[in-house]
Design brief:
The chain is an alpha/beta fold and about 550 residues long. The chain has 3 domains: about 1-55 and about 80-235 and about 355-375 and about 385-410, FAD/NAD(P)-binding domain; about 240-345, Succinate dehydrogenase/fumarate reductase flavoprotein, catalytic domain (Flavocytochrome C3, Chain A, domain 1), CATH 3.90.700.10; about 430-535, Fumarate reductase/succinate dehydrogenase flavoprotein-like, C-terminal domain (Methane Monooxygenase Hydroxylase, Chain G, domain 1, Up-down Bundle), CATH 1.20.58. Helices cover about 35% and strands about 20% of the residues. The chain is built from 16 helices and 20 strands. The strands form 5 sheets. Strands 1, 2, 8, 9, 10, 11 and 18 form a 7-stranded mixed sheet that branches. Strand 4 (about 100-105) and strand 5 (about 110) form a beta hairpin. The chain is globular and about 65 Å long. The chain starts with a strand and ends in an 8-residue tail after the last strand. Bound molecules: flavin-adenine dinucleotide and succinic acid. Succinic acid (SIN) binds next to loops.
Length: about 550
């Protein structure tokens, strides 16, 4: 079935929903999202949103911290505009009804600001330790009552509608929407739009251990790559230092905000080891903390390290971190009395689809915001809590830019052929999907993880090349399903990460290769950009 709207939004996290609310002022909006509307990394965000709110803080300080974490690869103009736009975006969320945590200061109430690794000031606006849930709920409530927005849940986008591929070579870089599988009917619908926003989030599920929810399969990055967009800096995968270590906890995150409130990482024998690794000790940037834990675990042979909060009053911990406190208790750990066992896990995709300051990709009418994008804010390593901030700022700018494009496009949307299932039949060997998925996630963890080497990367490249061909054959032979779409995207994203990591023969930010342990500014002070030729009509 064909569905037309002015704007198509793919994804219903912070980037997609905040864009949709603004875009709806200029036209009709369809949001497609592959599960229920709330299911997103946004919903699970804990720590908060970094922004200069305190009188003791300055834009310059936030900019400096972001640039330091980014290890030479941030785009300074983007850093400055995102940081400076932060307070306005926070106030919009408050007007939308988000109840951020506050505290009394003298006679006034003010926002309670948390601290996280790499930040030299308290600047994390939060709603206890459930910031993402508070933000997502407010955005969903507003979207659901907006008459210009229609939400299609359980619709997974398969591929972008590239003009060059489906219409002809006249507008070779343009995008007109996407094909999406309605998972409840099995039908593939054609969503046509004058402007499309990709807001599909990150790709943590490429790795065996991740803090990310199951939706994080890098679909948007893979779709944009297939459509000929520039993709940059995929080697910079951020590993969060502290996920709960417990056989039954599916990578539950233990927020960095705990270290911001005085938490200390210790080895089994109580040694506060971070002091040996960085002058900022437990509040060093994430890449340094994750690598230090990896180093200590390899040295000791232990399974985990421990985050010790026991120096803080029990009442404070229960009030400030109610979600984490309750979750730990469910696993038999009382964080008020004993240290929490933790390990690093894949957390954030710093690279993605290249965009400018208004979220426009290198393809016409294709905008990208949130974790799928590479705007230049994060460089080689994202500063904690800068992601929700970036999503808000870029989505707002993209909505204004796309609004102008929609006005100028009038009725020019061409007709695009309906999805062609070809001779595909229903697969009776779904085990191929689970086997390939597990294999990719395991070798990505072992060979393309926190510490890399040329030999490990070569091994990973050989394996992904074999699997890619097998997955591609399978993709065209069998009827399309959610799992098959995700597997194809996971394999593409794994390939992009490996290729980018192979190209960067130095160590910088989140990319650490033992064969080149130093930064090499003379040769690598630049982005790693990958692109396919634009598709052409068969
Ligand atoms: P998401 O919120 O992930 O939303 C992606 C959406 O796209 C989902 O609705 C998904 O279903 C949909 N989707 C994906 N593929 C398709 C497809 N093919 N078709 C249709 N729909 C699709 N950052 C901070 O700044 N502060 C924090 O405190 C913080 N805490 C975090 C805690 C956790 C546990 C995690 C996992 C991340 C955290 N982050 C934090 C990172 C931050 O939450 C994410 O980077 C951010 O929420 C990404 O927003 P997004 O809108 O780009 O994507
Ligand atoms: C956290 O709460 O530690 C996550 C913050 C982030 O990823 O920015």
């Amino acid at each position: 079935m064909e569905k037309r709207s002015d704007f198509l939004v793919i994804g219903s996290g912070i980037a997609g929903l905040s864009f949709a609310l603004k875009a709806a002022q200029n036209g009709t909006v369809s949001i497609i999202t592959k599960r229920a509307i709330r299911e997103s990394a946004t919903f699970y965000a804990q720590g908060g949103i970094a922004s200069v709110i305190s009188k003791e803080d300055t834009f310059d300080s936030h900019i400096k911290d972001t640039l330091y974490a980014g290890a030479g690869l941030c785009r300074e103009d983007i850093v400055a505009l995102v940081v400076k736009d932060g307070p306005a975006r926070i106030h919009e969320l408050i007007e939308l009804g988000v109840k951020f945590s506050s505290r009394v200061n003298g006679h006034e109430r003010e926002l309670d600001l948390g601290r996280e690794g790499g930040h030299s000031k308290r600047r994390i606006v939060h709603a206890e330790d459930l910031t993402g849930k508070a933000v997502e709920e407010a955005l969903v409530a507003s979207v659901e009552t907006n008459p210009n927005i229609k939400v299609f849940e359980n619709h997974i986008a398969i591929d972008l509608l590239s003009h060059a591929k489906f219409v002809g070579p006249t507008d070779e870089e343009g995008i007109w929407g996407a094909y999406a599988l309605d998972k409840t009917t099995g039908e593939v619908n054609t969503f046509l739009a004058k402007a499309t926003l990709l807001a599909t989030g990150g790709a943590g599920k490429v790795y065996l251990y991740t803090s990310n929810p199951d939706i994080a399969t890098g679909d948007g990055i893979a779709m944009a790559y297939r459509a000929g967009a520039d993709i940059a800096n995929m080697e910079f995968i951020q590993f969060h230092p502290t996920c709960l270590y417990h056989s039954k906890a599916k990578s539950f995150l233990i927020s960095e905000a705990l270290r911001g409130e005085g938490g200390v990482l210790r080895l089994k024998d109580n040694d506060p080891f971070m002091k040996r690794h960085h002058p900022m000790a437990d509040l060093a940037p994430r890449d340094i903390v994750a690598r230090a834990i990896d180093f200590e675990l390899k040295k000791s042979g232990d399974d985990c390290v421990y985050l010790d909060m026991t120096s803080k009053p029990a009442g404070f911990l229960r009030d400030r971190f109610p979600n984490i406190h309750t979750k730990c208790l469910e696993f038999g750990i009382d964080m008020t009395k004993e240290p929490i066992p933790v390990v690093p896990a894949a957390h954030y995709t710093c690279g993605g689809v290249v965009t400018g300051a208004d979220g426009l990709s290198t393809l016409k009418r294709l905008y990208v915001a949130g974790e799928s994008a590479c705007t230049g804010l994060h460089g080689a390593n994202r500063l904690a809590s800068n992601s929700l901030l970036e999503s808000l700022v870029i989505a707002e700018r993209a909505s204004r830019h796309a609004g102008e494009v929609v006005k100028a496009t009038k009725d020019a949307v061409p007709s695009i052929p309906a999805w062609e299932p070809g001779g595909a039949v229903v697969s009776d060997e779904a085990v191929v999907i689970t086997q390939n998925w597990d294999e990719i996630r395991r070798f990505m963890w072992n060979y393309v993880g926190i510490v890399r080497s040329d030999k490990r990367l070569e091994r990973a490249e050989r394996r992904i090349n074999l699997l890619k061909d097998e997955i591609n054959d399978y993709y065209w032979d069998f009827k399309i399903t959610n799992n098959l779409i995700e597997l194809r995207n996971i394999s593409t994203v794994a390939e992009l990460i490996i290729k980018s990591a192979r190209l960067r023969k130095e160590s910088r930010g989140l990319h650490y290769n033992i064969d080149y342990p130093e930064k090499d500014d003379a040769n690598f002070l630049k982005d790693t950009v990958l692109r396919l030729p634009h598709p052409t009509k068969a």
